[in-house]
């Protein structure tokens, strides 16, 4: 087996993305155009040759044999070549087992210990990991909703923001990034995300590998899952990210859906009553869930029991509702409602207690957004401190006449999902069932703006499930663009997607805005999104805890894999 190269070139001179930002390293620790490590010395820069490590640990060799830590996909069995590679892997595994047994049979004093630390397979995505980094000449939109600041210097030290201002002294040992033409934003805090994908016929596949990487590449540094199909998988992923064993956003993990009968989803537990709801909350809170979500067919009694149990543990409850109205949920003490006003049944004429009514689409299409009923509901939600999560992205996917998902987003999907999405987008134009959304979609925008203008707490999420057009890594940026289309200024939309979410999660002291002392979760945008909100789509670098990740490298590695694992 060939040894891996000692050094991978970052990029060619003049390339876009993270490497282009490295072009301005002058007299500071960093990389030159050839990717050679630079060291700081008085009077200039010295080139250090790359160093290679001999990898003698058997486990490391076995891991490499299976493709871990490389960009190669695991061989499949859809071709003769793939089948032979699979056989080779199995034989290699058997050989490894024999070798391992022999090694353990030896005197352990004769076996060299494994290395104390091993390079993460995701290390190849890291562009910056220096202890002190200085952005110079940057435009900064800090996440508080205020006006941008221009020609700013921002210092990262040991993973936190050490200084911001127009006249900040740059430490001698800092890695300097000239951010002219770039805009710095806080890392996104998205609160309706998923780690699974709809595969059809009530089946859901876990996306514990691709989705966290795509989220991070797209600027989401903190995320709340909006319901889980595999709660242990989500919880274990959170722990792995917290430990540094995997990359992705910090996770606030919602437990399994709390739902009544009616949906043909075998992975979803069906509540049997209020006592069962209490038991579910307590069990999953003990296991590590940090939020809970009420779902479409829950009863008011079960909802009340779940809310009380969660609040007794200091945890919050959100809801994607139907059988319970927004007004009822607010009076029961719910903390958050999902999908803005897009799933409310308060204005359905045939609504019966604890039952999901028919005709919800038409009720929304006919709704008077300026009527007294809407005003009364908004006032109640604000008075009861109920937040709303905007997920305009998911409604856009089945609204006729709306733009298709970006080409690069579709490239992330496995071929089957991409084909299904593109066909569904074409069908939406002639699907009578979808036509009401031509009226509904702009009404949802107006309702969210009215709620926020009245003093309500609006959060942001994307709901990447079901239709293929909402792809992690791209959906967060699109949600901010849609909030701007809804009438918010870019700084206001950014606050909804950053500081508002951090405040809801009780973490606004640490994340959600760019301020001295806060964690260095920073999104680097090529261009000025205040002049053109679509500029947010060009995002070469995302910093989490002061570590800079090459977004373009992550996207390239994830192409054709979302929907697979």
Structure description:
This protein has 565 residues and is α/β, with parallel strands linked by helices. It has two domains: 58-110, no CATH class; 188-558, Alpha-Beta Barrel (TIM Barrel). The protein is built from 18 helices and 22 strands. Strands 4, 5, 6, 7, 8, 9, 20, 21 and 22 form a nine-stranded mixed sheet that branches. Strands 1-2-3 form a three-stranded antiparallel sheet, with no helix packed on it. A three-stranded parallel sheet has the order 10-13-14. The two termini are 27 Å apart. The model is unreliable at 1-117 (pLDDT under 50).
In short:
It is built from 18 helices and 22 strands.
Can you lay out the helices and strands and say which pair or pack?
Layout: H1 18-21, E1 30-31, E2 37-41, E3 44-47, H2 58-65, H3 80-105, E4 126-128, E5 132-140, E6 149-157, E7 160-165, E8 175-178, E9 182-186, E10 188-193, E11 196-200, E12 203-206, H4 210-217, E13 220-225, H5 231-243, E14 250-252, H6 274-287, E15 291-294, H7 300-312, E16 316-319, H8 326-332, E17 336-337, H9 360-366, H10 372-383, E18 387-390, H11 392-397, H12 407-411, H13 415-428, H14 437-453, E19 458-460, H15 475-485, H16 490-496, H17 499-504, E20 522-526, E21 541-544, E22 547-550, H18 551-558
Parallel strand pairs: 5-8, 5-9, 10-13, 13-14, 15-16, 17-18, 18-19
Antiparallel strand pairs: 1-2, 2-3, 4-22, 5-6, 6-7, 9-20, 11-12, 20-21, 21-22
Helix pairs in contact: 4-18, 6-7, 15-16
